[in-house]
């Protein structure tokens, strides 16, 4: 929320209209937000879409999900209507709501605890803490990316690394790759 920005992060309010990776919404309302896209997200979505059908699965509400989707997928190219929110799954995330067999699902998420029944499908990505996390219980004080006026790496950041893993999974499991001698029933991303 804009009201929770640290003094060192408030410069971003003036940069919103100058940057393509930063948005302000609910301007003037009590719960006004800034959204900062993770570096490499556009490239990641474009490449991952060539290999996989993607879903958004968030513990956020539908309004929040739709706001973010307008920014990252305004034409509904990547996710279409495949959006699952806390309304459909309020306590945990489950592949029971995804219309595909779990042996073909790779989950990319920054929270493993919300996937208690599908950890074998999970490819955990590091949290993207561009802003100071006021809810964190970390005693260790380290500045946010925004406070340091820097950002994660495009080439060697978390999304780039996850994309390399996804490409490897796709090659091995779905595109023949080194496992082409296996029959279709034995191809399982969890391996």
Automatic annotation (TrEMBL):
Transmembrane segments: none annotated. InterPro entries: Fcp1, FCP1_dom, FCP1_euk, HAD-like_sf, HAD_sf. One of its GO terms (cellular component) is nucleus. GO terms for molecular function: RNA polymerase II CTD heptapeptide repeat phosphatase activity. It comes from the Eukaryota. Residues 7-149 form the FCP1 homology domain. Signal peptide: none annotated. Its EC number is 3.1.3.16. This is RNA polymerase II C-terminal domain phosphatase-like.
């Amino acid at each position: 929320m804009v009201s929770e920005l640290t003094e060192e992060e408030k410069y971003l309010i003036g940069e919103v209209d100058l940057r393509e990776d930063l948005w302000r919404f609910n301007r003037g309302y009590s719960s006004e937000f800034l959204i900062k896209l993770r570096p490499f997200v556009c490239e990641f979505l474009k490449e991952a879409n060539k290999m996989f059908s993607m879903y958004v699965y968030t513990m956020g509400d539908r309004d929040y999900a739709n706001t973010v989707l307008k920014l990252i997928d305004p034409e509904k190219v990547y996710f279409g209507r495949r959006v699952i929110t806390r309304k459909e799954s309020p306590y945990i995330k489950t592949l029971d709501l995804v219309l595909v067999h779990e042996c073909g699902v790779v989950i990319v998420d920054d929270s493993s605890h919300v996937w208690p029944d599908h950890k074998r499908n999970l490819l955990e990505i590091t949290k993207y803490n561009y802003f100071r996390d006021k809810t964190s219980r970390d005693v260790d004080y380290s500045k946010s990316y925004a406070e340091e006026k820097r950002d994660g790496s495009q080439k060697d950041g978390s999304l780039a690394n996850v994309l390399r893993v996804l490409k490897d999974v796709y090659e091995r499991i779905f595109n023949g790759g080194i496992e082409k001698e296996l029959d279709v029933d034995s191809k399982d991303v969890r391996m």
